[in-house]
Write a structure and sequence with these properties.
Blueprint lengths: L1 H111 L5 H63 L1
Helix pairs in contact: 1-2
Length: 181
């Protein structure tokens, strides 16, 4: 009986070892499959990251193009306004020069008269000074208006650049949240 028990025990042991080897092979196969799936997932993740970077770069380029387009439109508008103001100022200068010529002609006419009284000469001198003062004031106003227009143009361009940067940042945040979510 002991012999039969020993034989049964040996057979049980062989069966156990055989089952153990089978399970080890199954586990090795499962582990190999899992490693293979993990590597495939990592490759897919890398491809997705690459695609995401491409989309982000494209979006940045699109945002930059749109902001440049908007800036160009505003620059064209500002250039047009500046040109109109310059034309207005040129017209004003022409009128001033005409008025100046007129005044100088009147002054020369008055100065050319002989035998005038001293008080008339003083009146003429006062008129001459007054006209010269008015002419200087008109030139000052012209210069001030020109400076004001140029300052306004610079400020507007600066504001549009800030708006373009804010638009690009908000767009990037939106894309990031879309792909993150």
């Amino acid at each position: 009986m002991n012999e039969q028990l020993d034989e049964n025990l040996i057979e049980l042991r062989k069966m156990f070892e055989s089952a153990n080897l089978t399970w080890e092979k199954i586990l090795e196969n499962n582990q190999y499959e899992h490693v293979k799936k993990i590597k495939e997932s990592e490759k897919e993740n890398q491809l997705l990251k690459f695609e995401l970077e491409k989309i982000k770069d494209q979006f940045k380029m699109d945002a930059a193009e749109k902001s440049n387009f908007i800036l160009q439109e505003e620059k064209i508008k500002l250039d047009k306004i500046l040109k109109e103001k310059e034309n207005e100022m040129k017209e004003m200068i022409l009128r001033l020069k005409g008025k100046e010529t007129e005044l100088l002609a009147k002054i020369q006419k008055l100065e050319s008269k002989t035998g005038e009284k001293k008080s008339e000469n003083e009146d003429i001198e006062l008129l001459k000074r007054r006209f010269e003062f008015e002419l200087k004031e008109l030139h000052k106003k012209y210069d001030e208006e020109k400076k004001r227009i140029l300052n306004k143009k610079g400020k507007i361009i600066f504001i549009w650049k800030i708006a373009a940067v804010i638009f690009a940042i908000l767009s990037a945040i939106a894309i990031f949240t879309i792909f993150k979510g």
